[in-house]
């Protein structure tokens, strides 16, 4: 395909492009990053376009904001193949893959209703990242699938 055929949304001036998200996961990626568009920053979301590597993929472009590696590593839980591109003055100045963090703090909600993090205590959720899922460090509950369903509302 020519570049023009591939380009569904414009290039961005400055900011972050999250590429190679598995098809259908873009909205979950935004949720896990706590981005909902209400602060007015330009946001482009492309979903379910053909990809050689993934079959179909999603792309998210966030104008005016450079996401840090720590910030984006949580999204490896739902988009392990994602590529983070930092854009300055239209050029890709940094490109890296997401890596699995050891723990995720304040991002997921423990499904155990009796967990101290889900009661009215000012305690942030904290999960240890395992190969087979994530484990609550307070009550040992393991979430094995559909992590996106456990993302805390921003
Ligand atoms: N991009 C953008 N705005 C820019 C520069 C790049 O939106 N000013 C987007 C591109 O459309 C692409 C991603 O950022 O989705 C990565 O750009 P680039 O590295 O140029 O593309 P590829 O070489 O195809 O990337 P990869 O090798 O990671 O597939
Ligand atoms: Zn718990």
UniProtKB/TrEMBL annotation:
Tell me what this protein is called.
Aspartate carbamoyltransferase regulatory chain
Give the cofactor note: Binds 1 zinc ion per subunit.
> Where, by residue number, does Zn(2+) bind?
110, 115, 136, 139
Cellular component per GO, a single term: aspartate carbamoyltransferase complex
Q: Which domain of life is it from?
A: Archaea
Tell me the ranges covered by the Aspartate carbamoyltransferase regulatory subunit C-terminal domain, including all copies.
Answer: 104-146
- Of which family is this protein a member? Belongs to the PyrI family.
Q: Name one GO molecular function term.
A: metal ion binding
Cofactor(s) for this UniProt protein: Zn(2+)
For biological process, the GO terms are: 'de novo' pyrimidine nucleobase biosynthetic process; pyrimidine nucleotide biosynthetic process
Quaternary structure annotation from Swiss-Prot or TrEMBL: Contains catalytic and regulatory chains.
Q: Which organism is it from?
A: Halapricum desulfuricans
Question: Which SUPFAM superfamilies does the UniProt record give?
Answer: Aspartate carbamoyltransferase, Regulatory-chain, C-terminal domain, Aspartate carbamoyltransferase, Regulatory-chain, N-terminal domain
Q: Which Pfam families match?
A: PyrI (PF01948), PyrI_C (PF02748)
The UniProt keyword set, sorted, is: Metal-binding, Pyrimidine biosynthesis, Transferase, Zinc
InterPro entries for the chain: Asp_carbamoyltransf_reg_N (IPR020545), Asp_carbamoylTrfase_reg (IPR002801), Asp_carbamoyltrfase_reg_C (IPR020542), Asp_carbatrfase_reg_C_sf (IPR036792), Asp_carbatrfase_reg_N_sf (IPR036793)
Q: Tell me, in a sentence or two, what this protein's role is.
A: Involved in allosteric regulation of aspartate carbamoyltransferase.
Ranges for the Aspartate carbamoyltransferase regulatory subunit N-terminal domain? 7-98
């Amino acid at each position: 395909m020519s570049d023009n055929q591939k380009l569904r949304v414009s290039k961005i001036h400055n900011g972050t492009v999250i590429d190679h998200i598995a098809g259908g996961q873009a909205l979950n990626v935004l949720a896990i990053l706590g981005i909902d568009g209400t602060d007015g920053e330009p946001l482009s979301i492309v979903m379910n376009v053909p990809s050689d590597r993934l079959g179909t993929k999603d792309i998210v472009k966030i104008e005016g904001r450079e996401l840090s590696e720590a910030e984006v590593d949580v999204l490896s839980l739902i988009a392990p193949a994602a590529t983070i591109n930092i854009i300055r003055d239209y050029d890709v100045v940094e490109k890296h893959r997401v890596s699995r963090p050891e723990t995720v703090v304040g991002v997921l909600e423990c499904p155990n209703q009796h967990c101290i993090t889900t009661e009215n205590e000012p305690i942030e959720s904290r999960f240890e990242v395992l190969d087979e899922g994530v484990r609550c460090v307070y009550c040992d509950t393991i979430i094995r699938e559909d992590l996106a369903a456990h993302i805390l509302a921003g």
